[in-house]
Amino acid sequence: MTLWWPKYRSLEYLHRNPATDEWILLNSRGGLHFLCTDPHAKEGTRFIVSHEHKTVGYLVAKNACSTLLGTALHEHNGYTIRETGAQNPIWRDGFACSQVRGHASYNAEKLGSYRHIITYRNPVDRFVNLCNYAWCIAANLLLPYTAACKDKRCFIETILLLIKLNDRNYPDPFEVHLQSQYNHFLFTHRIDTVIRIEEFSDYIRKEWGCEPYNCNVDNKNELTADDLIPEDIEQLKQTSWGKDWLIPQYYGNLVYKNANK
């Protein structure tokens, strides 16, 4: 459905969400209007810097970003994350958030000799983690689009639709939690090491010599892989997330291997 408002030069579109029987207002590109977009997302993937370990760590949403940032600050720089009672204290800590750097702030002269790392997560596991996070931990993450979801099946179908619509926004501002890992990987300055999420804690212990900082963000698991049906995974593969299954093939020679396992 297309709406044309007299005296306005833009078109607005409505897209029906079958799961909730509601209409979603889209922008002129057919993408989503988001209240929570990263101002640096259009530039490329955000990152943090650990000068002590000469590391540039790229932040991929739902791929242990909190652990990476928290460890760099908490374990080595002597900074204590303020426990505010929030579900995720790191992203509500002004100083911690200030350490996240936008893509355009990268300085090749200063950081060129640093190791550039990025984490990879099985796409289905990442999708489940995102759904669970938005379902029972940070319920306001994807509002207003998920407000009418009364059960998990409705919620999962809505998230799949939002991922498809979010794809249309690119390269304009988009929601990073809905962005594919492939796009995160593609818009880095360079990648030296790819760390599978299940190996990340061991990587921190072995390469950084400390325990990873875990603020226990995902401590509730009300929505699990058992709530998915095969059609959900097939739909996910039809979005930009489909290329995430190919990352181990594309970056296989850079994948971190723990010699102790």
Outline of the structure:
It comes from Akkermansia biwaensis. By secondary structure, the protein is α/β, with parallel strands linked by helices. The protein contains nine helices and seven strands, in the order βββββαααβαααβααα.
Explained architecture:
The chain has 261 residues and is of the alpha/beta class. It has one domain (2-254). The chain has nine helices and seven strands; from the N terminus they run E-E-E-E-E-H-H-H-E-H-H-H-E-H-H-H. A hairpin with a 4-residue loop joins strand 2 and strand 3 (22-26). Residues 1-11 have low confidence and may be disordered.
Alpha-beta classification: alpha/beta
* Shape descriptor: globular
Regarding quaternary structure, what we see is single chain
Strand content: 5-15%
- The first-to-last residue Cα distance is 55 Å
List the strand order in the largest sheet.
4-5-6-7
Sketch the topology as an H/E string, one letter per element: EEEEEHHHEHHHEHHH
Name the poorly predicted regions.
1-11
In DSSP terms, counting alpha (H) and pi (I) runs of 4 or more, how many helices? Answer: 9
* Mean pLDDT across every amino acid position: 82
Main pleated sheet: 4 strands, mixed
Radius of gyration, in angstroms, nearest whole number: 19 Å
Organism: Akkermansia biwaensis
Protein name: Sulfotransferase family protein
